[in-house]
Amino acid sequence: MAEIMTEYWKPYLVPTPEDFSNDTPLPTLASLRRRILIKVKYTEPSKEPEKEASNAGGEQDPDTDHAQVEPHGKKGNICYALGSMGVYTRSCHFHSLNQPEAQMPTHVFALPESKVLFLLQEQREALLRHNASFLMRAYPKSTRVSSSNLDPAPFWRQAGVQMVALNWQAADAAMMLNDAMFEGTEGWVLKPASYHDDRRTPVKPKTLNLTVRLLAAQNVDSSKSSAPNVYIKCQLHVESRLEKREGQIPNEGKSKGGEWKRQSSHRQSHDPDFGGEELSFMGVEDVVPELSFMRFKAMDDISYQKDRTLGWTCFRIDRFPSGLQLLPLKGADAKPNGSALLVDIKLNLEAS
User: Fold this and answer.
1) Could you tell me the pTM of the whole model?
2) DSSP classification of residue 322
3) CATH class in words for 2-169
4) Looking at the DSSP assignment, which residues form a beta bridge with residue 138?
5) What is the enclosing helix (H) or strand (E) of 120?
6) If both were cysteines, with which of 52, 287, 300, 314 could 208 make a disulfide (CB 3.0 to 4.6 Å apart)?
7) Tell me: the pLDDT tens digits for 17-31?
8) What does the pLDDT look like over 29-68, one tens digit per residue?
9) Radius of gyration for the chain, computed over Cα atoms and rounded to the nearest angstrom
């Protein structure tokens, strides 16, 4: 695998600097543009390699032929060729925020969501200070056997986690927020200043006043002959009361709908006319625009069954367009599905 990645990605891989060590400072983000960073457990070559194991017939054991050895003689799970590709993103096993590796510029801690929730409750300030300077990845806990998701937004907001891994099997709320966070970027988004300042400069939240005037939709579920019973759901994803009051992640991190919800009336049509119906979100306080989201879903109201999602789109509040807008809708594969929503948006952000 290491050979294949080197062959195909060579122009984009980060070369190992001369005299590179665990104390080498991180480069600027600008110097890493159009580069691929590989996060992998790093295995140092042993100063005294283990003797090659052999079987009774004197043949070399294939399982130990190219095995690399970690310090203290412990055999690594990652071969050196692959491990050495993790130049600035070396995965280290997490024990505590005080372990020696926690000060290595190149380390990355990967924690299940339950561990992040525990640290938020017990060591919130220490966690935020760590994540202001170093990378952390949160991933769904193993008990999510149905491939459900954690809600990435509060992990970004409350824990300062940079990488929130998700299950991609379904286009749920978590996937929509993740899509909005990185839409139109090269995969990197700069945190608000207070989140990458280890002095913990206070966040300067805003008060949001937002009105969405629904005009019409087009080509909704157009592949079906019968017209759907369409209505529009608007959900605003901002800090919950628990986040504001205690700095904790609500609902045990589970993915859910927005904290503020509005819904339109129904129209039986592939091209419904909503006649300028207004959905308003007024006086929403303590909004961090870069980490807050507006989500639209076109729904089919089906009697005695779960309503069907016909299309969706999602925006970060700081990039939410104002005025008359034709918003392309996406399908379950997160790609445009040919339908669109015509809206008129009035948005105002004021200092709280």
Assistant:
1) 0.84
2) P
3) alpha beta
4) 111, 164
5) helix 113-133
6) 287
7) 888 888 888 888 888
8) 888 888 999 998 866 555 434 443 333 333 333 333 333 3
9) 24
